[in-house]
Amino acid sequence: SLPQAKTIKIRDSVKTRESGAVSRVHLFGWVHRMRMQGKNMIFITLRDGTGYLQCILTGDLCRSKEVPKLT
């Protein structure tokens, strides 16, 4: 029921956000830095060749077995 995710570069994320339309995006990159803030919040700085983007994981996403494997 969800629309197809559009693959974008980090540099295009501002344009996508400012367009005003609700959309799903798919980003590729690597984890530049990851910081855990307690048990319920993780800050991830994602990087690709075009820039950096800060992501925030909360709730059940923080307890996922996949989070420590992020590279």
Molecular structure report:
The chain has a 3-stranded antiparallel β-sheet, with no helix packed on it. A two-stranded parallel ribbon has the order 1-2. The model has no long low-confidence stretch (mean pLDDT 89). It has one helix at 13-18; strands at residues 6-8, 25-27, 30-36, 41-48, 51-58. With 71 residues, the protein is mainly β.
Poorly predicted regions are: none
Roughly what is the average pLDDT, rounded to an integer? 89
Strand order of the largest sheet: 3-4-5
Beta-strand level of the residues, as a percent range?
A: 35-45%
As a whole number of angstroms, the C-alpha radius of gyration is 13 Å
The largest sheet, given as strand count, sense and whether it forms a barrel, is:
3 strands, antiparallel
Secondary-structure class = mainly beta
